[in-house]
What does this fold into?
Amino acid sequence: MNYYQSPRWTNEIADCSMPMTFDTYSNCAFNCLYCFSMFQRGIGKSKENYLKKEVKFVNVQRVKDIFLGKRNSQFTPYIQQRRVFQWGGLSDQFDGFERQYGKTLELLKFFKDIDYPICFSTKAVWWLQDERYTDLFRNQKNWNVKFSIITLDEQKARIIERGVPSPQERLEAIERIAKA
It folds into this structure.
């Protein structure tokens, strides 16, 4: 199996408070017109796979081994310091690929077990109606979730953020995660 390699250092490493970023999948199921990730991944030798929405996922055991210190990597010192990482740097960890493969769920269980600090960035809302996910987030003190919303105008959002839940649905998701 050819796995997606993550975590990675962000291109904004010099001025980013969370320079280690993580993506479960090599592609994002959403089709936002402004997506910097699409432009970043849509060039070079792998552009065909990205544009066709072909996806690879991370090797879950490799990720676990890195965070447990069983595998030395460039991220080891950062992880040993228990520094927060950004989950959802180039792909949404709760998008349609997650519904298909469930690798984020598998890793969430692990990260909860080791109580690792994480900052999530998402536009997805379905996972907040799925107890398998919400149970993991409930009372989790060192995880935070950010939902991006570019406009409250639903018509504009539908055009610019194709395939993404409406701004109102994301506002309701913020309320649901806050209660967790």
